[in-house]
Specification:
Layout (H helix, E strand, L loop, with lengths): L13 H34 L16 H30 L6 E8 L2 E6 L4 E3 L1 E5 L3 E8 L4 E5 L4 E5 L5 E6 L4 E7 L11 E7 L1 H8 L16 H11 L2 H4 L18 E3 L5 E3 L2 H9 L22 H13 L15
Parallel strand pairs: 1-5, 4-10
Antiparallel strand pairs: 1-2, 2-3, 5-8, 6-7, 6-9, 9-10, 11-12
Helix pairs in contact: 1-2, 4-7
Bound molecules: dinuclear copper ion (CUA).
Length: 329
Amino acid sequence: MLQRLGILPVAASTHAGSVDALYFFLLAVSAFFALLIASLIIVFSIRYRRRADSETPTPVKGSLALELAWTIIPFCISMAIFVWGARVFVSLRTPPKNAIDVFVVGRQWMWKVQHLEGRREINELHVPVGQPVKLTLTSEDVIHSFYIPAFRIKQDAIPGRYTDEWFEATTPGTYHLFCAEYCGTWHSHMLGRIVVMEPADYQAWLSGGAGTAAGSAAGTVSVAASGEALFDRLGCVTCHRGESGDLGPALGGVFGTKVRLQSGETVEVDDGYLRESILNPQAKIVAGFQPVMPTFKGQVSEEELLQLITYIKSLRSSAGKMDTAHRES
Ligand code: CUA
């Protein structure tokens, strides 16, 4: 209803219904109490006005029933908002396992998008309709925020770490993309568009064919393959071959497992840990290894880091000489 009135943007994701319903409920509760309180002020100030200069008011005694009512009712309403909001929040924050992975790197003042299959785009994101998509976000410089009003999602892209957001588009079409965090002079120009396509069109687009302009050969090398090339070029392979006597831990199958560190702590091998270990290798040394790895800070861009991580993720357990606990779940 609010969309038809032009108050809310079009709704084009599976999140939109639940976010809008909660929003409408908050609006309705606020409107109800605002009207109630304003009306009571007017009615009471007329009804109980001072009628003569000599008039003295009768003392007011408390009312337990009244006080309980105006305590318990708002408590129940706010708990309902909390529980409802938490449910919507959890569903917004929990990407389905089968979601398509897409990487987004923000910088002053553009969005750079990398699809696993290799296609890249700038200030545009092509996605299929009816399939969950998970965006992994980071930034090269300052905080940006990836905001798609029609999907009701917004997430900061933060330098030095990964954040994510997910959606499932419900209607093919083109939608606005905004940067929603002030990021410098041209913040307001940091715009883009989301193109939601039928799955078949999306597949054609991904493979770079069928009348798309930017489908160059370089753009169709998969992210994992770019990562592998980089893994060789940077010499990572010298110490991480997965053979005994290697200077570094084997990487096959480690993603998603827990490893024991020199300090005795354990850490889960996720995107963040891999990223940290490439840029700041001394931070969390795996038990049984020496802190001999040099930093690759300044040698790899954010996009290349994502390629390396995707390649490491793609490695099946081969040697498994790393000191790992069993994969959980
Ligand atoms: Cu990027 Cu505002």
